[in-house]
């Protein structure tokens, strides 16, 4: 979940925690978009100077909602030229978990940005999808992330190559399995043009069959979406062959049976 520090979310963390409590959730995690070295890198992430403020907001959420355990994390963009920066972010705080995501391909092409829909025109979809999954594999190999976020975000606008996609998914999922990290069912995809959760059912079934780790996220950018569609997400996980999910604290995970 996010906070107003990313400049495209609404509401304070304490509001999200209160919504979680009203739903009967006892543990939640905030994973704000991590800063980049340059404040003008883009306009949808927390600034480096706001890391302390981020924790202050989460401290307030804890004080206001003592019955909800709050885990602290970052959603860190993987870009090949920023590996040392990514490593430095992991040392800024004792994070409970870290999510790795890919939002950029090539020369800083922000492929999922809602204002950049027209930049897909003329793209070689086979090449785009290959590059995306190549970057996901690289992100896993960095050995830092506990979870890979929305692992088929590339489908966001519905632009898909023809033919079988499993040949792209399998090397990524094999890397995830080998590294003993997790993917997530991200319910936020329902509100995107693709109109479905991330990842799509066929990818999830492949992951379930391989015994890949799993967790859940709403990717909430407003308090009303905290825990949204989690019942459906859990049923999807079960149908896909998963029997347990992961909870994180202090950089470690425990497996919890459904």
CATH homologous superfamily descriptor = Metal-dependent hydrolases
In the CATH hierarchy, the third-tier topology is known as: TIM Barrel
Instruction: Work out the number of β strands.
Output: 10
Widest sheet: strand ordering: 1-2-3-6-7-8
Helix content: 25-40%
CATH architecture grouping:
Alpha-Beta Barrel
Q: Taking Cα atoms only, what radius of gyration do you get, to the nearest Å? A: 17 Å
Query: Ends: how far apart?
Result: 22 Å
**CATH classification, class level:** Alpha Beta
Low-confidence spans: none
* Shape summary: globular
Percent strand: 15-25%
Biggest sheet features: 6 strands, parallel
Mean pLDDT reading? 97
What is the element string, with H for helices and E for strands?
A: HEHEHEEEHEHEHEHEE
Give a structural overview.
With 258 residues, the chain is α/β, with parallel strands linked by helices. It has a single domain, classed as TIM Barrel. It is built from seven helices and ten strands. It has helices at residues 13-22, 51-64, 83-89, 125-141, 166-179, 201-210, 230-239, and strands spanning 27-33, 69-77, 97-101, 104-105, 109-110, 147-148, 182-186, 213-217, 244-249, 252-257. It has a six-stranded parallel β-sheet. Strands 4-5 form a two-stranded antiparallel sheet. Strands 9-10 form a two-stranded antiparallel sheet. α3 links the parallel β2 (69-77) and β3. α1 (13-22) runs parallel beside α2 (51-64) and α4 (125-141) runs parallel beside α5. The chain starts with 12 loop residues before the first helix and ends with a strand. 39% of the residues are buried. The model has no long low-confidence stretch (mean pLDDT 97).
